[in-house]
Design a protein that fits this description.
Strand content: 15-25%
CATH class of the largest domain: Alpha Beta
Mean pLDDT: 90
Shape: elongated
Number of domains: 3
Number of helices: 23
CATH architecture of the largest domain: 3-Layer(aba) Sandwich
Number of strands: 25
Distance between the termini: 134 Å
Largest sheet: 6 strands, mixed
CATH superfamily of the largest domain: DD-peptidase/beta-lactamase superfamily
Structural class: alpha+beta
Length: 658
């Protein structure tokens, strides 16, 4: 007997291929429907509990993103209508920045009965989000219940213990921050130039006055504040609010304590703030410290909170993280039926001091010298041996840092740079160079200050008397980039490493003969800061390139460009010419200053528009190891306005340095 199966009758000829095609299409459709059903089933009633696992992953991802979707949750009691708000209530200060949440494990043993549990690892980075010391992390594991509802969908179980297991008793979390004392800003000798100082904050409590306008008027007169604006703020404030008016040094408050306390509604709070010896003391450089603004809190990424102190300007802002240190944090439970728990305590880390090059005594003298000026002015002093900046004064003290970041035409002080270039090119200081009333270059006529002319005189006289036309006539000896190169040899326009914002100067190469002639006596497109011209004077005094230094610790990165040096012999000759300016030129007011001989150069820089053009007044120079620059906006001339201030400063400096 054959082992072959018995053949079965087939379909009629011609219909078999069609039937096979229909069967195949039907099978594909059935497969697709089954697959779609499987996906839907996995999201609802997956006996393998894949739906529970996916839900746990979704909740972890949402929490990490700071999102709480009500549709993913159920509750044994009433589900809060706004889970985001409820989470914020439970998490307290931690809610401002989401943690990193991952699924550690999922227990699906009872998934077939519609129940599962996921262990979630929760990690709050308190350093990144709240300014705590590096490595400060609140880490814990919490349990997420997952249930399958009557609609066959998996949902997470909302309960306070999900946020933290310690909240099962009805408590909430609190985050307390403690700022350490702010570190000091030090002077050159290591003593503090900014330190914690007793202050009194003057304010108004609206409920303590029956006449806000009268209270505001009295305080406005005593404290020089806007009485109308204060009156309006008092009217709009809550009755028991503290409406801040001004913060006074304790010594300033004590001087008018009785009259302030007699004002109805005036209230006072005592505290300390990091302050310099006086309000004016290097204010633009050092900056200020105060309570953070709402904008700064919002943009800080959690580093600041309302009420924190922070650097608001100047060096205090630039080095805020170093000076402020890191806040301490404490995470605790509050309320509930159980005992409060301390979940994490991290002690604050004190800030580190910033040491500057300032000489406190010289700084005070510089501030005092400028106090009487009626136009905005600046004074910078440097150590010629090191380039360290000993004093940076501005007047007014709180209206910008002209000394370091100002951009002004240097006027005839720039003749120091031009003279270095001319001497390097072979000019003899005793060579006769005519000082004519005017000198014309390509149709442009240049003149001297107040129409002066000294005729055929040695170049050293042209320098001492600051003859513009002599320099314009000599500009043809220079190449277009000579002044740019020479200025950098004296530190002007060179790369600096001061540790703070400072303008080294901009000395563009000449684009025409007229451009070069104007630049030769400090006009045209050349711009400098008072610091830049003080650096030039220091380089002449040292007979080598000096770069300024202000922040000494932490030391800023060294300049990447080495810088080229001028011929020391040429610089020494320029120093001699600067001495002539004092003995027989435009700065004779400096001749009687006590101490070593003074070397100087005055400058009167035209700017703006008008006929005649307004002028700035300059004087730069050095005496012994002290280089200086004095600048006064809209001063009539360097010799008449800036040089007397320089003389007063050097006289005061001699007294404090003796």
């Amino acid at each position: 007997m054959s082992s072959e199966p018995t053949p079965q009758p087939g379909p009629p000829s011609g219909r078999r291929p069609r039937r096979r095609a229909v069967v195949a299409a039907g099978a594909a459709a059935a497969t697709a429907v089954a697959a779609a059903g499987a996906v839907a089933w996995a999201r609802t009633r997956d006996d393998g509990a894949d739906g529970a696992r996916r839900l746990a992953e979704e909740v972890a991802g949402d929490w990490s993103a700071g999102t709480w979707r009500t549709e993913l949750f159920t509750a044994t009691g009433e589900l809060p209508a706004d889970l985001t708000a409820e989470y914020a209530r439970l998490a307290g200060g931690l809610a401002s920045a989401p943690p990193t949440v991952t699924v550690a494990s999922v227990d699906t043993e009872r998934a077939g009965e519609g129940s599962a549990e996921a262990a979630l690892d929760v990690s709050f980075d308190l350093a990144a989000a709240h300014g705590a010391p590096e490595g400060s992390v609140l880490a814990y594991t919490t349990t997420l219940g997952v249930r399958r509802g009557d609609d066959e969908r998996w949902r997470a179980v909302w309960e306070p213990a999900l946020v933290h297991p310690a909240l099962a008793d009805g408590s909430t979390l609190s985050l307390d921050r403690t700022q350490p004392p702010r570190a000091e800003v030090l002077g050159r000798d290591g003593s503090a130039v900014v330190a914690e100082t007793p202050v009194v904050q003057v304010g108004v409590q609206p409920s303590r006055t029956t006449d806000p306008a009268a209270t505001a008027a009295a305080l406005g007169e005593l404290l020089d504040v806007d009485a109308d604006a204060l009156s309006e703020r008092v009217r709009q404030a809550d009755p028991d609010a503290f409406v801040s008016v001004i913060t006074l040094r304790r010594t300033d408050y004590d001087a008018q304590r009785d009259t302030l306390q007699a004002v109805p509604g005036a209230v006072f709070r005592e505290s300390t703030l990091p302050l310099a010896p006086t309000r004016e003391f290097a204010r633009s450089l050092l900056g200020t410290v105060g309570q953070v603004t709402a904008e700064k809190v919002e943009s800080s990424g959690g580093r600041y909170a309302a009420g924190d102190l922070a650097g608001l300007s100047g060096l205090q802002a630039d080095y805020d993280e170093r000076l402020a240190g890191r806040v301490g944090v404490a995470v605790r439970t509050a309320g509930g039926t159980g005992e409060p728990q301390e979940l994490l305590v991290v002690e604050p880390v004190p800030g580190e001091p910033v040491r500057t090059s300032l000489d406190a005594a010289l700084q005070q003298e510089a501030d005092d010298v400028l106090a009487a000026t009626t136009s905005p002015s600046a004074l910078v002093a440097l150590d010629t041996a090191t380039g360290e900046v000993l004093a940076v004064a501005n007047s007014p003290a709180d209206q910008g840092d002209l000394a370091l970041t100002g951009r002004f035409p240097p006027g005839s002080t720039f003749k120091v740079v031009t003279t270095v270039a001319l001497l390097a090119g072979g000019l003899d200081p005793d060579q006769t160079v005519t000082c004519a009333p005017t000198f014309t270059v390509d149709g442009r006529s240049f003149r001297n200050f107040e129409g002066e002319a000294f005729g055929d005189v040695p170049f050293r006289t042209d320098f001492a008397q600051s003859c513009n036309t002599a320099f314009a006539s000599l500009s043809s000896r220079l190449a277009d980039a000579d002044l740019t190169t020479t200025a950098a040899q004296l530190g002007v326009g060179a790369e600096w490493a001061t540790g703070v914002d400072a303008f080294a100067g901009d000395v563009p190469a000449a684009e025409s003969a007229v451009d070069l002639a104007a630049a030769s006596f400090g006009q045209g497109r050349t711009l400098v800061s008072p610091l830049a011209m003080a650096v030039a004077a220091a380089s002449v005094a040292a007979t080598q390139l000096r770069r300024p230094a202000i922040v000494l610790d932490p030391a800023p990165p060294e300049p990447t460009e080495p810088g080229s040096a001028a011929d020391p012999a040429v610089l020494a000759t320029v120093g001699d010419l600067m001495r002539d300016v004092v003995t027989s030129g435009t700065a004779t007011v400096l001749a009687g200053v006590p101490g070593a001989p003074v070397h100087a150069k005055t400058g009167t820089a035209e700017h703006g528009t008008g006929d005649p053009l307004p002028t700035h007044a300059w004087t730069i120079g050095y005496q012994g190891s002290l280089a200086f620059a004095v600048f006064v906006t809209d001063g009539s001339s360097g010799g008449a306005v800036a040089a007397p201030l320089a003389a007063e400063f050097l006289t005061r400096a001699a007294a404090v340095r003796s």
